[in-house]
Structure formats: structure tokens, C-alpha cells
Amino acid sequence: MEITVAYLQEAFRKYNEEIFGNTLPIPNLKVSNAKRRLGSMHCRIQKTWGKMHRSFTIVVSSYYDVPLSLIEDTLIHEMIHYEIAYKKLKDTSAHGTLFRQRMDEINRKHHRNITISKRMTDYAPRKNDPTETYLVLAIEMNDGSHLLSSVARTVLADLERQIKRVEKISNFCWYVTQNAYFRNFPKVRTLRARSVSAEVFSNLTAQMTPVRDKNGWVETL
């Protein structure tokens, strides 16, 4: 089946009620074309007006041709990560004692087949993949302008050092995306970017996966 955000939202509500007792607010749910993993959970922490705010994103890949049951197991796997992070529970590692206990309990009580990991070589791609993943730098300026740039991955560290020396930059964040909007952007190696409207900036960044902001790497599980 084709994985859509609408499907993930419906499945999240179903398993939140059946398994997690409706204790989890619905996070950002996204579909990716990732080849290395079927799912991931991101926790982003931002400081606004002196207060720390957390936002959570669950991503499920549609790259592989897998049965519906595996898609559901992948979503529930990431929901366990989300539950632990949202409730600020302590675990020994990303897939530590608490995670494994919760996974085993859900498998037993709800007849699931959730595992720690899956071998991607066991599955065929859903279709030929013509898409490209872009590393995008999103910049907000003190004067209210908004900038976007497609960046070569090898220069991320160099550009970030330059950004931190520019006083006119109020905020920035690195994202990854497969949005064709960036197909015609030059892949820059210097601090260059295109100016876009606040609306375009907001819409595009909401659809992308954050990987690093001015506070450091965004947590990825």
C-alpha cells in the first residue's frame, strides 16, 4: 500500500488508544524515502522566551515494498521511542532495557512482531527512486527576511562557523528533504542563499526533517 501522512495519523490514533492509553499527543508525522531505515523518531528542543519547548516527529519510509503489518510495527516501534522521550523516562540506551521491556510487552499482549531492527536487504524497493535528498540551510535574519540554500554536505561545518560570525542572522537550522522545490537550487559550498517569503519559508521548513540547529544536532533515534 502507499504510505501517506493521513494513513500515519489514522494509525497513530488507533495504536495510541489501543496500546498507549491515549497518553501521547499526536506528533509531526512524515513520510520519507529513506533507504537505511524504515522509521525514525526525532526530538527537537527549542528555547523561546526563556522557556524550553520540545517537539516530536515520527518518520516512516515508503521506499521499500513491505507488508502493512511491518509498516504498523515500524510505527509502533517509533511510538515506543516517543513514549519514553515524551514522558522523560530513563533508559540505558536508545534500545535499552526499558525499550525492550515495552516492546516485548506489546508483542505479547497485542500480537505484534516489533523488533529492534530490520535488514533492508530483505526487501525490494517499491519502485525506482528518481529522487534526491537535499541538505537545506534555512536562515532567518534580524530584519525579518528569510533565506534558503541547498548545501553540499561536506561543507556543513565550515558554513556553520561562518554563520555564527554573522550578527545579522537571528536563527538558522539545517534540514534534509526530497522536495523537488530544491531541484534547481545550486548546491553551494559558500554562504549563499535565496530570499523567500515568510509564507514559503514556513511551509517548506514544516515539511522538512530538521537535523541540526544553532543548539547542535537534533536527536535522532
Secondary-structure map with pairings?
Blueprint: H1 5-18, E1 28-32, E2 39-48, E3 51-61, H2 68-86, H3 97-110, E4 134-141, E5 146-151, H4 156-163, E6 169-177, E7 187-188, E8 194-196, H5 198-207, E9 209-213, E10 216-217, E11 219-220
Parallel strand pairs: 1-3, 5-7
Antiparallel strand pairs: 2-3, 2-11, 4-5, 4-6, 5-8, 6-9, 9-10
Protein name: Transcription elongation protein SprT
Domain SprT-like: 8-114
Pfam families: SprT-like (PF10263)
Characterization of this structure:
It is built from five helices and eleven strands, in the order αβββααββαβββαβββ. The chain is of the alpha+beta class and 221 residues long. It folds into two domains: 118 residues, Zincin-like (2-Layer Sandwich), CATH 3.30.2010.10; 77 residues, no CATH class. The strands form two sheets. Strands 4, 5, 6, 7, 8, 9 and 10 form a seven-stranded mixed beta sheet that branches. The chain has a four-stranded mixed beta sheet with strand order 1-3-2-11. α2 packs across α3. It is globular and about 55 Å long. It starts with a helix and ends with a strand.
